[in-house]
Amino acid sequence: MVFARMLFKTLLVFALLPLPVWANVGNVEPNKPSENAITWIQQAEAESGVVTYTQDLAMIYEYFSFSPIWHDYRAKDELETQINIISLAGISQEFEWRAVLLRELRVSGDWRAYDVFATDSLLALISYNSQVPLHGKSWFFGTDINDTFPSPTKTQTTNLLMAASRNALYDYAFSLRPETSQYREMAKAIVALQDENTSYWPKFTQRGLIKHGNKLVDSDSLITSLERHGVLSTEEAQRLKLKHVGFYNAVMVQAVKRFQQSHGLKTDGVIGNKTRYWLNKSVDNRIQILALNMERLRLWPTGRDRILLVNIPNYEMELWMDKQLILDSKVVVGRPSRRTPLFTSRLDSVVFNPHWNVPVTIMRKDILPKVSVDNDYLSKHSYTVLSSWSNGEVIPPDSIDWETVTPNNFPYRLQQSPGNFNALGRYKFNTPNGNAIYLHDTPAKGLFNRASRAFSSGCIRVQKAEVLAEVLLDKSGLEMGDYDYYRKTPKTKWVTLRKKISVHTIYQTAWVNEDGEVQFRDDVYDYDARPKRTIDPSASLTASTNQS
């Protein structure tokens, strides 16, 4: 599509200027607008349909003697691109109607109606972007945005005036993007899907487990689907169709493995329910998932210096130092009923051979019911009963009347001793936060072989915990001889890091990897679900390249 190719070129220009060209303009101060200016805006509103920030608009256009400010088509494209992406994400009805109205006004030829509404929409975008740190977790992982965004601050309005004074609205709008190349790459992926959406996307409906050599009821549907998903070349697809291959052959198996890998599935080449689900995921839904995850980028840190990131749906952890990836590891995260929260903290210490203070919820729901079945369960698993966390008095288990005690009225606390079967393994990584969530080792190594790894009660189990501990101590300036001693001694040892590590749990179900391949992951906590509304997925991005 011509429009899509034009947008593609627009999105490639992604380098933010260190000092925007509009930042050198001085003596620009927003003043209270006159009644004539307000009347002028109200007349423009009658032409455009609706505006929200009447006072701000009146001040801006009076400053420019009621002349248009959207001269640069790139600025229009950039504004519409960002608003259309928010619209596609399905999080805001306001941005959905703004996206539609911007397209309609741009082709209408009414410069005042478009210009004023574009400025009004830019003010909304500025306000939205500034509110993300406060409300983003609710917006992107909960309910829709229902409130009107407040007026931008005086400083923000002044910056807009400065940008318009230098005909630099493109740079200003561009600066509102998340500061990561992922935004650009994911936008390119949406454009590619919009182009593909005009093609035939068949559903593959054959039931059961389909393995290498099995008969295919409708091989053409599977072949076409694999081709559309980019894991089977057009030449291979045509060759298979010409041969009328009626069974699941080696070429298809390899294509399915590539598909499974890009969706975080078990790469065994077997078509089961999850692979079938993703093969049949609609283009419109994929576009919405990409757009939603593009908006989530506004929440996450962009720096890569002394930072540990855990992407929950990908079940992966990354440790970055000086913009270099030092360590990546598989992780186990909280099951859907006990979710790992989105939080930010600082990793301040490593505990060797830790005790485990059992959280009350786990004690009541998981451990005490087992004690009612086996009175020796606590001793078998090295649990100590304490009167409370404060005084630590040990209560002999045989002094407890287990006949009358229930999980809900059990008045004590449980602590598990260090050892091979301790739930925290050999290493605990302290990340102080209000949710009592931390990273740790685990004796249950077999779970890391699973493709889906949401099994914990909220804390994060790290496959390469021993390596992580070694790297953290090394990067903190400790002697490796000390590390070896701590590792080998059976005693509990707390080691404070001289340099703390920033820790962030994030939730991205879509991104583009370093090889340019679009990745999707299961929405393990159902955060991607959005109210069903009619959103045009084919026009939203490509419309932003219509030049007026």
TrEMBL record:
GO molecular function: carboxypeptidase activity; transferase activity
Domain L,D-TPase catalytic intervals: 306-483
Active site residues per record: H440 (proton donor/acceptor), C459 (nucleophile)
Biological source species: Enterovibrio norvegicus DSM 15893
Keyword Lipid metabolism: no
Keywords: Cell shape, Cell wall biogenesis/degradation, Peptidoglycan synthesis, Signal, Transferase
Pfam families assigned to the protein according to its UniProt record, in alphabetical order: PG_binding_1, Scaffold, YkuD
Gene3D superfamilies from the UniProt entry: L,D-transpeptidase catalytic domain-like, PGBD-like superfamily/PGBD
InterPro entries in alphabetical order: LD-transpeptidase_YkuD-like (IPR052905), LD_TPept_cat_dom (IPR005490), LD_TPept_scaffold_dom (IPR045380), Peptidoglycan-bd-like (IPR002477), PGBD-like_sf (IPR036365), PGBDSf (IPR036366), Transpep_catalytic_dom (IPR038063)
Transmembrane segments: none
BP GO terms, sorted: cell wall organization; peptidoglycan biosynthetic process; regulation of cell shape
SUPFAM superfamilies from the UniProt entry: L,D-transpeptidase catalytic domain-like (SSF141523), PGBD-like (SSF47090)
Family under the similarity heading: Belongs to the YkuD family.
Signal sequence region: 1-23
Domain of life, per lineage: Bacteria
The name this protein goes by in its record: Murein L,D-transpeptidase YcbB/YkuD
Pathway: Cell wall biogenesis; peptidoglycan biosynthesis
